[in-house]
Amino acid sequence: ALASMYHSYHGRLCRFLSRLTRRPDIIEEAINDCFWIAWQKAGDFRGDSQVSTWIMGIAYRCGLKCLRQHDGEAIDDTAVVEDHAPSADDNDDRELRDWLDKGMERLSPDQRLVVELVYGVGHKLEEVADIMQCPVGTIKARLFHARVKLRNVLPGLAGSAPYTETMQ
Prior knowledge:
transcription; Rna Polymerase Sigma Factor, Chain: A; single chain; Arc Repressor Mutant, subunit A; mainly alpha; globular; about 65% helix
């Protein structure tokens, strides 16, 4: 059962934790901690949310814990996250990912995480609130401010003028 859960969630957790931590050297540690806790606490799962929401909440807390534990350590630049196969049009995909990553870097960590959970993973706002253990209103505000910031910075990163209300 653990192997099945691991194969089902590893790629998603890898992407999620890479966005959260921005530290490739600690992603696997956080994933292993997450699965260990999920395995130990499986009997405590109440079913109030989807299993994926529960696991993402555990991963979120494990990622934050790893960041605290490794604060100040040098980052291992040789660590590579391999979570997907190259696409047919890899150069265009890579350019788009790089452009979006640069925009995401301009967001606060909480805004970045909310965008990743809503648009990248596909969680509902209520699920994100459960994962991050905060009110839905806070999630809505973070998402709103993240979209405004991305709307303003992404055009500049692509070489065009930032969005303004008069440009509608």
